[in-house]
Design goal:
This protein has no helices and nine strands. It is mainly β.
C-alpha cells in the first residue's frame, strides 16, 4: 500500500488531486494536537459543466479512530466547473495523533440535475510531508 502525502483520482470526468502538509506552528505535540493543511484541486476533464454540491471526508488517525465529516460545498463555496476548468482550495485537519489518513468523495451535479459522486483517493497526513505549493496543482 502506498503511503503518499498526495493522491489523484478521476471519476466521471472530474479529476481530484490532493496533497497535505504538517503545520508545526499550529500544532502542540505535548497536548496531542497535530494540525495539517491540505490542498485540493478539482478539474473537469469532461464536456459537461458540473457544480460541486457536497463533501464527505473519512479521517482515520494512527490509532484507528475514524471520523466522518460531511457538509455542503467546500470552504463556503459551491464551484461550477466548465470543460477543462479547475478550482483549488486549502483547508485544515487537526488530529490527536502524529499521523493519519484522509480520503472521501464530493457530490457533483450536472446542468440537467443528475448528481454523481467523485472519489478523492487516500492521502497521508504525516509530519514529513513536503510543503504545499500554491502555484501548481496539488
Amino acid at each position: 500500500m502506498s503511503q503518499s502525502t498526495s493522491s489523484e483520482a478521476v471519476t466521471d470526468g472530474i479529476r481530484i488531486q490532493a496533497a497535505a502538509q504538517y503545520l508545526p506552528e499550529e500544532s502542540k505535540a505535548s497536548e496531542g494536537k497535530f494540525v495539517f493543511a491540505y490542498k485540493i484541486t478539482m478539474t473537469n476533464l469532461g464536456e459537461q459543466r458540473a457544480r460541486l454540491v457536497a463533501r464527505h471526508w473519512i479521517i482515520v488517525d494512527s490509532e484507528g479512530r475514524r471520523q466522518d465529516v460531511r457538509g455542503p460545498g467546500v470552504v463556503g463555496e459551491h464551484p461550477v466547473l466548465g470543460h477543462r476548468e479547475s478550482y483549488s482550495y486549502i483547508s485544515y485537519c487537526p488530529l490527536h495523533t502524529q499521523w493519519g489518513t484522509m480520503e472521501g468523495s464530493y457530490m457533483f451535479e450536472r446542468d440537467d440535475g443528475k448528481r454523481f459522486r467523485v472519489r478523492c483517493g487516500r492521502f497521508y497526513l504525516v509530519p514529513t510531508a513536503p510543503p504545499l505549493s500554491l502555484e501548481s496543482p496539488a
